[in-house]
Amino acid sequence: MSSRRFDTIFFITFVDSLPELNHDDKEISEIQTSSLSSILKQWNNGDLWLPPPQLYEISRFLQFSHFDTMKSFAQERSKKGLERYLPVRVNTNNGVISILPGDDLYPETPDLYGEEDIQSIDASLEELRQNAQCLHRMELKSRHNCQIAMNISPKNGQVKPADFADLFEDSKL
Description:
Distance between the termini: 39 Å
Mean pLDDT: 85
Strand order of the largest sheet: 3-1-2-4-5
Helix content: 10-25%
Number of strands: 5
Largest sheet: 5 strands, mixed
Number of helices: 5
Radius of gyration: 17 Å
Shape: globular
């Protein structure tokens, strides 16, 4: 079975006060403003589902201890260009890996349109991690159990995502 592909760009904006927000009951069913730690607690408790790309980006935000530091970083980093992150899904014996560019398992030519079947590997998440030299992946044991493994340098001046094992103890925002 293949998977649907989405070509999405995430934007970040900084405002002094919250503007009036409306939802359309189609693409947006609810609008909520919360701290990162509150969002992650809801996700961890199973009260909220966050797709892997959103978890990945939130974990990057957690690298900043202050709002102004993140704002300055975002303004400077935006001048360095973009990189498409097209995750490649692989099923394992005990979970799913969302493989990202730079990982040993990332294909030279990823399936842009979701036409190929999802690959299955007869190994555990842990075995595949131990056998890899370059890691850039999200390992999902369930919808609310995710770990990011990254030992390569991000491109274009990006920051590495925070390790999900540390998120609830060391969250800075």
